[in-house]
Automatic annotation (TrEMBL):
Keywords: Cell outer membrane, Ion transport, Membrane, Porin, Signal, Transmembrane, Transmembrane beta strand, Transport. CDD domains: OmpA_C-like. Residues 239-357 form the OmpA-like domain. The lineage of its organism: Bacteria, Pseudomonadati, Pseudomonadota, Gammaproteobacteria, Alteromonadales. Residues 182-194, 324-351 have a biased composition (Basic and acidic residues). This is Outer membrane porin. The gene is oprF.
Amino acid sequence: MKTLNLITISLLTAGLTAPVFAQQTEVEQNDFYLGARLGAFSADDDRVAVKNGQVFSVDDGFKTITSGVEAGMMFTEAWEARIYYDYMEADLVGAGDAYGDSYGVDALYHFNNNFYAGLGVNNTEIGDVTDVAARVTLGHRSFITDNLAWRVEGGAQRGWEEDYTEMFANVGLQWFFGGRDTSPEPRTRPEPRPEPQQAAPEPESKPVDSDGDGVVDSKDKCANTPKNYSVDETGCILYENETITEELLVEFDLNSSNIRSGERSDIKDMAEFMKEHPQLDITIHGHTDSTGEAKYNQWLSERRAEAVANALVKQHGIEKSRVDFKGHGESQPKVRENSAADRQENRRIEATLKVVNRVPKTR
């Protein structure tokens, strides 16, 4: 991505110096143009995107590629109004790519025939997360012919709803209609048409696989699939199940149901996992060692399980209806007791949660 940043800087530098192939052509009032654009976008380091129902951070730096179209009109020789649309492909931290789009309107003021600046309103959406922003633009435009111009731009935008500050840079080609070169071309005597000759048969075209997924375009129902994903016979991504397990183990002192201070971080981790997966409920299983009477140990195991259940509900905000607890006394030892250390391992609570996610299958 360092190479992309160098390319962006080079394009901006080229635009701010008069190119040798540019010609002096003045824009005129009511000139209208259509254009194509290609660029890079630097996302804010706090921007996030949603993919497969999960939230991921968008890579910052000029790592988001944009391509699109634009249209504009010169209302005076100095003021221009423009609308545009860009398709966006962004890198996510640890989750591949996310897609989105960006569109908006700009008011541009031309200081002379080449340099201009502007203000605008922009809507940027990446991975189903949308932000409206105010945008400032600096640019340079040069004409290649009377009707064809190229331009390079850079600038920044500031979000209104989210505290995002983001940068962009792009280049574009613009074709102007009307008012460019109205002088009539001299007519020449038409040359006699040659006798038509039988055209040679065109060679058979080979099937095209634009996204390189092994399925030709004529059969590909899912275009632009990432090359590292496995696909089916129609070119669509294959998915597989991924199981994520979260375990909780808390030990207690002899004859105690008080939670040790060193064990509280593990309970917090389990609470965070439950908040990330609100469809899951939990059952806390309490245990004791074999010291003491069985009836007392049953009561103590229930108190230990209840203490951890209360910590999840009262200290970490988990709904009470999602938390259950049971005591098993000394009936389910973790290890056979031959020492004080063995008895300590049996004085515990245990809980396990599992969730299955659907993830793309890689090649």
